[in-house]
Amino acid sequence: MAVKFKNSDGIIRHATIESILEGDFIKWSNNADYMKAEEDKDFSATLSAFTDWTYEITKGYLMIVDVQGIKSPSGEEFILTDPAIHCKNTDRFGGTNLGVEGMNLFFSKHKCNSMCRALKLLPHSACPGFSEHGTLRLCRHEVKVSVFKPGKFGGQQSGTLSFLFSPFGLHSDSVRVKPPRLTQAPDCPP
């Protein structure tokens, strides 16, 4: 909730506040390379996939990390608080924004899981559009073509046509994928 108040000097201030969270506070990841161990596989897989999804949905511009909070009393939902954001623009989102280096740290530990596959996220270690650290790179594809090029030599000549593409053009529909209920998370084939 956003609040507006006057301090003791009469200066108007603005702040955001949140309710006290009841329950056991859990840190699933930080803004570097920490990820919660596998003892809580369903929640860890879902929240790790969430960070991966934020990276893909923003086309590699940012990702939400430092995922922490509590499970709801029913145990079927997360109540998350105080995230950090890694962004290519390191002038945004404060001192916890580690930029592309922070994104690389996440991908150095992240292993795509059944939730990533259910969301049809690109597998970063196997995708030709990503470096071994998970950062986006453009791929140059070359196609052999035959062209007719009139000139003093005349006739038909062979050449190479090259172009660049981004793998995100292949997965533009991932926004419309609804995640499955946690209790029914499929173990999708890769």
Automatic annotation (TrEMBL):
Keyword rRNA-binding applies = no
Instruction: Report which superkingdom the organism of origin falls in.
Output: Eukaryota
Alpha-type protein kinase domain: which residues? 1-124
Name the chain's protein: Alpha-type protein kinase domain-containing protein
The protein's matches in InterPro entries, at most eight in alphabetical order, are given as: a-kinase_dom, Alpha-type_PK, Kinase-like_dom_sf
PANTHER family, alphabetized: EUKARYOTIC ELONGATION FACTOR 2 KINASE-RELATED (PTHR45992)
Q: Which GO terms describe its molecular function?
A: ATP binding; protein serine/threonine kinase activity
Swiss-Prot/TrEMBL keywords:
ATP-binding, Kinase, Nucleotide-binding, Serine/threonine-protein kinase, Transferase
